[in-house]
Amino acid sequence: MATELEQRLERVLSAAAGMAPEPEDDFTARVTTRTRHRRRVRAGMVTAAAVVAVAGIATPFAIPDGVQRQDATQVRISPGPPVDVTTARPAEELWPDAVVRLPATLPDGRPYSVAHRLPDGRFLIAPFGVTGGYFPPEVLDATTGQSTKLMPDNPSLTYMGGIQVGPTLAVWLMQQGTATTAPIEVWAAPLSGGPATRRGVFDPQQRKAYMARGYETGGSLYLTVSTTAGPVESNDAATYRLGPDGAMNRVEVADGLTITDYNPWLKPTATAQCSPLPSAGRCVLWQAPFLPVRFFNLETIQWRTPLVAPEYPEPNCHPEWCFAHKDDVWTAYRFDGRGAVSLSKLSGDRPRNFGVSLSRFTVIMTDTSPNIKQYLWDLKTNTVGVIPDSAHFPANGMWHDFVGLRTTGTEIVMLDLARIP
Amino acid sequence: MLEDFEEFVRARSAALLRYGYVLSGNRHDAADLTQEALIRLGQNWARVRDKADPEAYVRTTMARLHISWWRRQRRERLVGTPPERPQVDDGIARADDDLGMWQAVAKLPPRQRVVLVLRYYEQLSDEEIAAMLNVTRGTVRSQAARGLDKLRAPATERIKDLTRRT
After folding, report:
1. N or C: which end of chain B has fewer CB within 10 A?
2. How far is B97 from chain A (nearest CA, A)?
């Protein structure tokens, strides 16, 4: 028999459903158009894979029309003996000097995540509301527990997220009003201290900004905006350099690419699709030919195609590191094949890694519900530490320069990656 | 061949948006979840229509997408979608006797939230939820119990608070 709590939960969920938005007029047309597009792209990819299989050619791949042709250059890697993750010690014990303890919430009760330690020792944080809203970044003084706003409250602006830390500026995006089609404002605050200022406004012209990110590099601010999703050949991602007067100068060579995280390299959007199949009970990647990823550096105007090792023909590459796995062994190597390291006994379902911080750290997760295992991997020293799995953000995973270890009632315990020697 | 898919989208999108809203708690994510799940259904329309239940397929996809998107957003530093400002509709507050349950639901970890939505909104059995999320029945029960525990505490606090005020 349902308890009073369960009955109330049923009422609340039903009431919430009644508050859901009605489909927009063009919703059906949008879904069917995008479905047709993805089917066409998939058909092209599968055809290309078949051609490769028949011809018995490893590289270069036959690439469907519309996809930029990229040549992979192969490289031999020699990772040395792998580190057995089952013998890994807790990350907190491995790097005790990097442990940081901060208040669990701000004085007004808002939880937050930590993005960066500022030169003056304070922390750049991203607060979020208890019911799911987000707030623009603030600066937390851990000694007093007080946070300082970087921009004045303005109810007509909605925080879009996407906080990025460049060499001298923290950059984030705001949107005028709550409509997803409203103009996007680029805001930035100096890491050396001082308030945020608006640096430019981009009008998506009544189209929803599917993706938007800003970043500072080489003394300039950049903004990437896309109003369509999809792989590089189909999205409309464009990157703009913001002039001192706020003018948006399009970096045409970078069309279709997007700003990555914390570095000046633009990346192509994903080319693979994942289809959860109820019958199979798991997510299945459809078979597309591997396309070597090509990155573009906004600061040096340079292209980079990471090398591919013959034994790992389909690595997952970031601008600086590539990752690949066979069975329970994971290997990482620098984009040019140097610095190869590996881990073994990474058992579990769907192992994956999340980003690279400070050019040397990544988090590897194996997801065998309900036992999720996470490891912090120092690629520079091939050292691996166990991160406790906590279902409670922010003490979970890696975000910018910090890895969450746990949350107690009063504090967040994190690893400051910049403090790992 | 996509004509009947289009008809399915037209007929079911409102209901699916409601489900997406209960799952995600905000309008933008609800629309994105629904659209992405429908596109994936459309990609596999012939097979799903012939061999499975399209509605169940798309709802399963939405539940799994919600969990994986949440994880990805948190872990991969991607916050590209404009968030909703926190607000509670009067209708929800009334259904809750203003005890803050909707806010408490919003704070649940996504797996617990999905399990509770599937159990108390979709009225699925624990066995059905386990099959849908590819977990054991025991996991469903433990996730549900943890989720309910977390909802119970704020409600009790809120009742105490209201009692103190009166």
Report:
1. C
2. 9
